């Protein structure tokens, strides 16, 4: 019966002959293309050393060095983790900038770094990043491969494993960086129980409240990505963040115009965006 | 007191997990390792039945769709990281493929949901609710301007107000979730007192 109803229904009109007839398909394509061009231009400018806008100071970034320094003084390890993020997720890419920064600090201070994982492919990249940091610091022998650990790819298996590891190893610094879910508060509480200085950076709006309540420093939302760019100084990340920022301002301007027009009774901007 | 061994296992595991609140101890460690081991063993079985059996045994060997071997070989290249150093670079190829696939997929899926939200933000300013929403939206957004107009006192002040507004929102979310967590704890407590010990609560 359902099949008959589907057949009887009028076929939806395909936009411009190839686009599915959903809201914002063509507008979305134009946004992607515009952003792509903007990102490319900004990356090229950053690579060529041409002036591009500087990223403002982000409270919390300095805390990474402070926390690693404290761990060094106390002779205790540093722990850094991100929850289940695939290598193709942009949160993972931002996490790698933080991991490289922390690994470099640990390698130069000769402090042990522990990285826990719930995604096996991300773990292999993490291991390479940490190994490279020790190599650059001239201490390849100080790198301990067993400190890059796979816990479990099941959420609470991972959580329990990390909480147990924190209780046993007692890291002096606990960095929770990336996209988290319900495990966020458990991990942060485990760190608080052993007296670790805790820095969190996440784009997960649902978990920010827990990090704000239980960590010493929290980078919220887009600060996480901007922080990655500021830390790495990598032209690709830096140029992308600047391009995103310009797009964000343009969208806010569009929203102001759209809201005023909508108040006046015109849905021109909304129709444009839904096209 | 319950005589059902399953209830006893559940109760002991629950208490072992809560013992972490006192300090890390052997009971917690047993629960932790058991949980991780159980899931790992379950996952190996699941992966065999979800991937190796259908793709390699059924499609590749039985139906002779040999192109699945290419994917299998790419997957096997990941083990090259355990090979002698001169062959370890081979492990980068499957990772590169996965990264490209993931980022391409993200790019294709990303713009539309953004525009759906943007269109929803543009509400007519004909009620107090909508005006408050619009003002809050603008000040919160200005907190996330990292490069543009970062020297402007107006944007800095607006961003500071935006941060306070976000904190109010975070506080609400925190309180809401803590209540949820307490109800989860009460559920466990009810289980221990009624199902295990046999009290009537």
Describe this structure in words.
- The complex is a heterodimer of chains A (275) and B (201).
- Chain A contains 11 helices and 6 strands.
- By secondary structure, chain A is an alpha/beta fold.
- Chain A has 2 domains: 23-51 and 234-256 and 268-275, no CATH class; 62-232, Rossmann fold (3-Layer(aba) Sandwich).
- In chain A, strand 5, helix 8 (208-214) and strand 6 form a beta-alpha-beta unit.
- In chain A, helix 3 (62-74) crosses helix 4, helix 6 (155-169) runs parallel beside helix 7 and helix 9 runs antiparallel to helix 10.
- With 201 residues, chain B is mostly helical.
- Chain B folds into 2 domains: 1-66; 125-201.
- Helices cover 74% and strands 0% of the residues of chain B.
- Chain B is built from 7 helices and no strands.
- In chain B, helix 1 crosses helix 2 and helix 6 crosses helix 7 (153-196).
- Chain B is flat and about 65 Å long.
- The two termini of chain B are 14 Å apart.
- The chains are: A alpha/beta (275), B mainly alpha (201).
Rounded mean pLDDT score of chain A: 89
In total, the number of strands of chain B is 0
| Element-by-element helix/strand order of chain B | HHHHHHH
Main β sheet profile of chain B: none
Oligomer: heterodimer
CATH class wording of the largest domain in chain A: Alpha Beta
Q: How many H/I helices of chain A?
A: 11
Residue fraction in strands of chain B: under 5%
How many angstroms does the end-to-end distance of chain B come to?
14 Å
Low-confidence stretches of chain B: none
Give the number of helices of chain B.
7
Please describe the biggest sheet of chain A, giving its number of strands, its sense, and whether it closes into a barrel. 6 strands, parallel
Termini separation of chain A: 33 Å
Number of strands of chain A: 6
Structural class based on helices, strands and sheet pairing of chain B: mainly alpha
Class derived from helix and strand content of chain A = alpha/beta
């Amino acid at each position: 019966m359902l099949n008959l109803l589907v057949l009887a229904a009028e076929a939806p009109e395909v936009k411009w002959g190839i686009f599915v007839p959903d809201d914002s398909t063509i507008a979305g394509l134009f946004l992607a293309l515009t952003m792509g061009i903007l990102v490319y231009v900004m990356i090229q400018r950053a690579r060529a050393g041409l002036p591009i806008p500087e990223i403002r100071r982000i409270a919390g970034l300095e805390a990474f060095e402070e926390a690693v320094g404290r761990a060094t003084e106390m002779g205790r390890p540093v722990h850094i983790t991100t929850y289940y993020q695939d290598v193709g997720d942009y949160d993972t890419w931002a996490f790698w900038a933080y991991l490289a920064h922390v690994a470099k600090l640990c390698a130069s201070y000769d402090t042990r770094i522990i990285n826990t994982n719930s995604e096996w492919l991300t773990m292999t990249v993490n291991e390479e990043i940490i190994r490279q940091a020790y190599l650059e610091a001239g201490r390849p022998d100080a790198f301990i491969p067993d400190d890059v650990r796979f816990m479990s790819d099941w959420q609470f298996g991972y959580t329990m494993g990390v909480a147990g590891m924190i209780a046993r190893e007692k890291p002096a610094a606990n960095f929770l960086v990336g996209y988290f879910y319900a495990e966020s508060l458990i991990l942060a509480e485990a760190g608080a129980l052993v007296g670790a200085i805790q820095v969190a950076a996440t784009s997960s709006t649902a978990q920010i409240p827990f990090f704000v309540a239980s960590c010493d420093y929290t980078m919220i939302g887009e600060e996480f990505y901007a922080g990655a760019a500021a830390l790495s100084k990598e032209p690709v990340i830096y140029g992308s963040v600047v391009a995103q920022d310009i797009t964000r301002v343009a969208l806010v301007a569009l929203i102001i115009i759209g809201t005023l027009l909508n108040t006046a009774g015109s849905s021109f901007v909304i129709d444009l965006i839904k096209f | 007191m319950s005589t059902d061994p399953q209830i006893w296992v559940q109760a002991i595991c629950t208490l072992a997990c809560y013992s972490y609140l006192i300090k890390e101890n052997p009971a917690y460690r047993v629960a932790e390792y058991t949980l991780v081991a159980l899931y790992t063993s379950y996952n190996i079985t699941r992966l065999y039945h979800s991937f190796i059996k259908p793709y390699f045994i059924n499609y590749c060997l039985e139906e002779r769709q040999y192109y699945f071997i290419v994917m299998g070989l790419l997957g096997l290249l990941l083990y090259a990281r355990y090979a002698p150093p001169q062959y370890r670079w081979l492990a980068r190829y499957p990772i590169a493929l996965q990264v490209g696939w993931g980022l391409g997929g993200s790019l294709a899926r990303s713009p539309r949901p953004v525009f759906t939200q943007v269109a929803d933000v543009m509400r007519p300013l004909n009620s107090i609710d909508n005006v408050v929403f619009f003002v809050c939206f603008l000040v919160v957004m200005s907190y996330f301007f990292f490069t543009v107009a970062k020297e402007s006192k107006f944007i800095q002040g607006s961003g500071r107000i935006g941060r306070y507004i976000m904190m109010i929102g975070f506080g609400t979310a925190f309180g809401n979730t803590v209540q949820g967590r307490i109800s989860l704890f009460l559920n466990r407590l009810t289980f221990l007192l009624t199902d295990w010990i046999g009290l009537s609560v």
